[in-house]
C-alpha cells in the first residue's frame, strides 16, 4: 500500500513538474523579449521543489491514515490505514505492534462472518485479545509465538537447492517453460507447486512420503536447500485441490510446534496446520491411545504438539493468570 501510494504521488508530481517546465518555456519565448529557457539541473530542482509535495503527502498519510488519491488505488476504504501508538502504558504500546486490523470498511457491514475466528487462525490470532464494541473481531492481535516471514525473495522466485531436493525425492520437474502442465494433476499424479508456480508432478501414492521427507529436511538445520520456514501442504482430500503445495515467499505467518517424531521444533503455516494433527496438551496424547465407548472419541495419531497450552494467546493475554 505504501509503495502504491508513493508511486501515484511521484507520478502526479512528475506530471506537475512537466507542466511547470512547459509553462516556463512558453513564457521565455524570444517574442516576449526574454532569453530562451535552458533546462539545467538547478532549474529542474528548483521547479520540482516548488510544485511537488511528495514528502508532505506521505507524512500526512502516515500521521492520519487517510489516503488522498485520484484513482482510489482500488481500495475499499480511504481512511483508517494507520493507528497512533499511544504510550498509555508499556503493554498498550506493545500491543500496537502485534495488532492486525481487517479494515474500517467491515465495521459498517451488518454480517458477522468477517468477525469470526476461523480454524486456520488457531495459534496465529489470539481468540481473547480483541476489543469490545464496533472493532470486535476486526482488530485482532497475533499470538505470542507467531512470527512473520521477512526473508527477501530471490529474483528468480526459487530457493537454490530446493528443486534438486524435490527431484531426489521422486518429483518429476518441469524442464522447460514451454512444457504444458495442464494434465500434471490428472490420473495417478498430483501437482507440485512452489509459491503458485507449477514445479512438476508426483505420484499420488508418494505424496505423503515426499511431504514427510521434506518435513524432516526442514527440521534438519544442515540442509540449506529446504528453509526452516517452508510451508508444506500435502492435500489428499478428494473434495479439495489434491497436490503438494509449497510456500517460501515473504509476508507469511509461521509459528513453532514440536514434532513428535524428532522432538525438535518446527515452523508451520496457517494452511499447513489444517492438514496436521497437533495435540494441545500431553493429556491429549495420552487420551489418543486409550479406547473409549463413546463413538466421538476416535483414537487419533498425533504428529505434533503445542509448545505450551497457552501458545494460542497473545503476549498480553498470556500474562493473565489462569484460574484453573
Automatic annotation (TrEMBL):
<dbReference type="Pfam" id="PF04565">
    <property type="entry name" value="RNA_pol_Rpb2_3"/>
</dbReference>
<keyword id="KW-0240">DNA-directed RNA polymerase</keyword>
<dbReference type="InterPro" id="IPR009674">
    <property type="entry name" value="Rpa2_dom_4"/>
</dbReference>
<dbReference type="GO" id="GO:0003899">
    <property type="term" value="F:DNA-directed RNA polymerase activity"/>
</dbReference>
<keyword id="KW-0808">Transferase</keyword>
<dbReference type="GO" id="GO:0032549">
    <property type="term" value="F:ribonucleoside binding"/>
</dbReference>
<keyword id="KW-0548">Nucleotidyltransferase</keyword>
<protein>
    <recommendedName>
        <fullName>DNA-directed RNA polymerase</fullName>
        <ecNumber>2.7.7.6</ecNumber>
    </recommendedName>
</protein>
<dbReference type="GO" id="GO:0000428">
    <property type="term" value="C:DNA-directed RNA polymerase complex"/>
</dbReference>
<dbReference type="GO" id="GO:0006351">
    <property type="term" value="P:DNA-templated transcription"/>
</dbReference>
<dbReference type="InterPro" id="IPR007645">
    <property type="entry name" value="RNA_pol_Rpb2_3"/>
</dbReference>
<feature type="domain" description="RNA polymerase Rpb2">
    <location>
        <begin position="83"/>
        <end position="147"/>
    </location>
</feature>
<dbReference type="GO" id="GO:0003677">
    <property type="term" value="F:DNA binding"/>
</dbReference>
<feature type="domain" description="DNA-directed RNA polymerase I subunit RPA2">
    <location>
        <begin position="199"/>
        <end position="255"/>
    </location>
</feature>
<keyword id="KW-0804">Transcription</keyword>
<comment type="similarity">
    <text>Belongs to the RNA polymerase beta chain family.</text>
</comment>
<dbReference type="GO" id="GO:0005634">
    <property type="term" value="C:nucleus"/>
</dbReference>
<dbReference type="Pfam" id="PF06883">
    <property type="entry name" value="RNA_pol_Rpa2_4"/>
</dbReference>
<dbReference type="InterPro" id="IPR015712">
    <property type="entry name" value="DNA-dir_RNA_pol_su2"/>
</dbReference>
Amino acid at each position: 500500500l505504501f509503495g502504491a501510494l508513493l508511486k501515484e504521488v511521484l507520478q502526479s508530481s512528475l506530471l506537475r513538474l512537466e507542466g511547470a517546465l512547459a509553462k516556463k518555456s512558453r513564457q521565455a519565448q524570444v517574442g516576449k523579449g526574454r532569453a530562451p529557457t535552458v533546462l539545467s539541473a538547478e532549474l529542474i530542482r528548483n521547479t520540482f521543489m516548488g510544485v511537488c509535495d511528495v514528502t508532505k503527502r506521505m507524512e500526512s498519510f502516515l500521521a492520519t491514515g487517510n489516503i488522498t488519491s485520484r484513482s482510489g488505488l482500488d481500495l475499499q476504504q480511504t481512511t483508517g490505514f494507520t493507528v497512533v501508538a499511544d504510550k498509555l502504558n508499556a503493554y498498550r504500546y506493545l500491543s500496537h505492534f502485534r495488532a492486525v486490523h481487517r479494515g474500517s470498511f467491515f465495521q459498517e457491514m451488518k454480517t458477522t462472518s468477517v468477525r469470526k475466528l476461523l480454524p486456520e487462525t488457531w495459534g496465529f490470532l489470539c481468540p481473547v485479545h480483541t476489543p469490545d464494541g464496533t472493532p470486535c473481531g476486526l482488530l485482532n492481535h497475533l499470538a505470542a509465538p507467531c512470527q512473520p516471514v521477512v526473508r527477501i525473495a530471490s529474483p528468480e522466485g526459487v530457493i537454490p537447492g530446493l528443486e534438486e531436493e524435490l527431484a531426489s525425492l521422486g518429483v518429476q520437474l518441469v524442464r522447460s517453460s514451454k512444457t504444458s502442465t495442464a494434465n500434471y494433476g490428472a490420473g495417478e499424479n498430483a501437482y507440485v507447486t512452489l509459491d503458485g508456480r507449477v514445479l512438476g508432478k508426483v505420484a499420488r501414492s508418494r505424496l505423503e512420503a515426499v511431504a514427510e521427507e521434506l518435513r524432516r529436511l526442514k527440521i534438519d538445520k544442515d540442509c540449506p536447500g529446504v528453509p526452516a520456514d517452508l510451508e508444506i501442504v500435502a492435500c489428499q482430500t478428494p473434495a479439495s485441490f489434491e497436490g503438494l503445495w509449497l510456500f517460501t515467499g515473504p509476508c507469511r505467518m509461521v509459528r513453532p510446534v514440536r514434532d513428535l517424531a524428532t522432538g525438535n521444533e518446527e515452523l508451520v503455516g496457517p494452511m499447513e496446520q489444517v492438514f496436521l494433527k497437533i495435540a494441545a496438551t500431553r493429556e491429549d496424547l495420552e487420551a489418543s491411545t486409550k479406547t473409549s465407548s463413546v463413538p466421538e472419541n476416535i483414537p487419533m495419531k498425533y504428529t505434533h504438539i503445542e509448545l505450551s497450552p497457552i501458545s494460542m494467546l497473545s503476549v498480553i493475554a498470556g500474562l493473565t493468570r489462569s484460574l484453573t
